[in-house]
Amino acid sequence: YGAPGVEFMGLHEENNTVMQIHFIPDQCQLVTLLDDNSLHLWSLKQHSGASELREEHRFTLKGPPGSPPSATQITAVLPHSSRELLYLGTESGNIFVVELPSFRVLEDRTITSEAVLQRVPEDYCNRRLCELVEVLREHPKNPDQILIGYSRGLIVLWDLQNNKVTHHFLGSQQLENLYWQRDGSKFISCHYDGSYTQWPVSSDNRQPEPLENLVPYGQKLVSINLGQSFLSASMNLVSAEFDDPSAMVVLAEEELVVIDLKTAGWPAVHPPYLASLHCSAITCSHHVSNIPLKLLSCSLQVLVMELNDEDAEHVVDHAEADLLQDQEGYRWKGHEKLKTREGPVRFEAGFQPFVLVQCQPPAVVTSLALHSEWKLVAFGTSHGFGLFDHQQKRLVFVKCTLHPSDQLALEGPLSRVKSLKKSLRQSFRRIRRSRVSSRKRRGGSGNASEVQEANAKFDQDALQEMELAPVQRKIEARSAEDSFTGFVRTLYFADTFLRDSSRHCPSLWAGTNGGTVYAFCLRVPPAERRVDEPVRAEQAKEIQLMHRAPVVGILVLDGRSTPLPEPLEVAHDLSKSPDMQGSHQLLVVSEEQFKVFTLPKVSSKLKLKLTALEGCRVRKVMVANFGSCKTDDYSENDLAVLTNLGDIQIISLPFLKLQIRYPCIRKEDVSGIASCVFTKYGQGFYLISPSEFERFSLSTKWLVEPRCVVD
Predict the structure, then answer these.
(1) Same-domain pairing of 138 and 234
(2) Residue 90 is assigned to a structural domain of this protein
(3) What does the alpha-carbon distance between residue 375 and residue 138 come to, in Å, rounded to a whole number?
(4) What CA–CA distance (Å, rounded) separates 516 from 490?
(5) End-to-end C-alpha distance for the chain, whole angstroms
(6) Which residues lie within the region annotated Disordered (predicted)?
(7) Using CA atoms in the order 323, 329, 333, 339, what is the torsion angle rounded to 10 degrees?
């Protein structure tokens, strides 16, 4: 119960908020209430050796013709212990009774607010006490009695057999919730102002007076709504007279807290995960596979941090990378770089920074790549990219990628206004180019009225095209004058054949927003001289894609047409060494096409274009290893591709054949698409809220659906 992997999920067809969930006693069934006032009955049923949560029925409570919506707006739900009835409290104060599992309304059993008010003193009747049913509670010892609580403070005990009020309780504060004592002799009412009251239930029907009326003050106050957001965890038998709770579970707005009631001071219980649900929005994520066990006991630096299991105090070294390289005509208009702290800094155990690289201009870092064996880290911004040797704490080189038209890249962080201006400017430029080309095709023939009519129609079509962007816009080549062409989208390390086919060498590849790919040869000294000799770099190749679409992925295939493995995995025998005998190939993935080049000549070999009519764009791409679910002896490497339409395409390597397409994320869910992360074995994650991940699998071998059984 509560263990990882034990879960059942049900998805409503309606895209509405779930307001309430109630279990049907002892039935492996539950009822959900949505914000559209619909009720849904779910059952846990075994199928193929596992229990599945299935929706059995749905129902919407309807009032008589002409009645206001409040007459049937459900505010409280009580599944009766008979397992056959559901009591529904409403905004109007009426309580409807429906039969389970059919959801048939039993009209003759409706508890009206008029019937309740017959036993309430007249001076309370004028206070409209029965306007809204806040809570319904069944008597723990007598299933023929239910406690009805109204929002304005009135509480009544209703006899289901005789259809009458046996007791009434007059509260003075807005009611939030009710709880019975186990023996049914008294109950507690919780109120909006933080107070709670104990009420006795006598057998002689005398008007009860509250036993206690308390407001919890003091340093140990648990700041929660007692009525709606806590439960106690107890191991007592049902027959025990009193509860002996060991913990209290508090559901706050943004986290789940468990309080230890057995330990002095009521400390919080440490949760088994890193951060509380909804604690803060997730802004970046990366999945790491095949982590070696030695990682936690050694110091596979990560970026410019190293792992230390003890607290430490040391000076963080500082380096600066000038990406503009003193080029004339460029002036940064954004914020200044952050100031570094002088002297030693104390860090807690864990990953501790030991060197800081600051880019100049201080723009957002848009891409990173780490090679743990070579002790190198590459970084990119909207102005260029650089390579840093974190063993010698030395900058190897920087490369400016700015185009003369990239003035927006110098105005600071990207903004919605700047993007809108750029989009409008590009759209009108596209309109002008298309108008000129259409006139050329017409050859200047025809009378003036025909030309005027054609131009008017084109203007209308062009404006429609702008409104439909980007999903339905046709793909066309981008101009080199478009802004942010120097924006570095991807960085990639590879040991491959870059200069000639006889010798391979370390290399660094970079892809930009303007469709340019840069390749640098690296000279990394051997281990025995690595500390003393510097790493050298020299630009060897530069590729310009004809359509100038942003480069989102770069990959090198070895002699077996297999993607180069991670060096860390090879070093720990988690992956096979690459084939360095046969010829290598370069795969460049842009937003609009996949293209394979031969190495070292970099000549085009084959390509795959995405569908132009749909305006399809690649958003995320990663190599995934798909293993057979029937045998461990077979697996294949393919590309997992997420598009801006929210679908996932599986493309074969090295022949770039579309294998299958899955709809995964709604195309309107921009944040979900932007946050998607693939794993190396055909799974993935994407955000369904600012702090919640949805997990999916593309592989038949690695299923993410939990297979659990409820007896």
Answers:
(1) yes
(2) no
(3) 67
(4) 11
(5) 13
(6) 432-454
(7) 40
